[in-house]
Specification:
binds 2'-monophosphoadenosine-5'-diphosphate, 12 strands, 12 helices, oxidoreductase, 6-stranded parallel β-sheet, about 280 residues, Shikimate dehydrogenase (NADP(+)), globular, shikimate 3-dehydrogenase (NADP+) activity, NADP, aromatic amino acid biosynthesis, alpha/beta, about 35% helix
Length: about 280
Amino acid sequence: MSTHRIPLAGVIGAPISHSRSPRLFAHWLSEMGIEGHYAPLHVEPADFEQVIRTLPRMGFRGANVTLPHKEAALAIADRVSDRARRIGAANTLTFGEDGIHADNTDGHGFVANLRQGAPDWQPEAGPAVVLGAGGAARAVLDSLIEAGVPTIRLANRTRARAETLAATFGPKIEVIDWDRANEAFDGAATAVNTTSLGMKGADPFDLDLSALPASALVTDIVYVPLDTPMLIAARARGCRTVDGLGMLLHQAVPGFERWFGATPQVTEATRAAVLA
Ligand code: ATR
């Protein structure tokens, strides 16, 4: 009798219906002709641990984890990658013989998107400006430091949040007052919006970019809309921009490789499949 089981994975969150990951994985599975399934799983915090402990017995190879479970996912793991530990949260769980392995691929996705969108980007060429100090900012800061930026100027409306974050990442991070963020753009090689400003339905983006040099590479982790007010304003200054959708696509690659055993490509077709 065959013990062949179709590989399963999924994305766990609450809410989960808006997640684009099921569409992304379905596209890659069909593109590569791989027999497998990837499901959206709505799980409340009270049920998270029990669900995670049950999934491997149901044939799941692993799962992506999104809000509000990213810290709980780290806590439940038997092994934790260095970057997940530094970020303090996990988005990718892999179920192995030796237990649950937790990783955080958000920062990888962030930098891979920039490298694909701007192959000649030189992170070491000058300071990076990061706007925002929420959960997404942690992964962005970690990956920018790994990529070799010399310094990071971190501005957040609530300064205390930026200071807490800076304290965990060390001396490369300089905290800037939100009302002086415009000065932080002076001489920057890279500028990143990790706040919800400019997102559909959120507050409008109203920062002054007049100090931003035309040589800077600018990106926004907001991808609804794809072309955000920050990106439009940066292009008006002559800057190159990379939209945030690729971060979502690239952060999914390591999980796909581990659970389905093949390396998916991020292409225009991938973007179209996710946006459809
Ligand atoms: P995430 O974890 O996805 O990054 P978050 O923790 O809610 O989300 O963080 C949202 C970010 O957008 C924060 O940096 C927030 O600033 P505060 O820390 O001061 O709340 C920022 N943000 C949201 N609305 C803003 C506004 N109107 N002006 C400036 N920053 C704003």
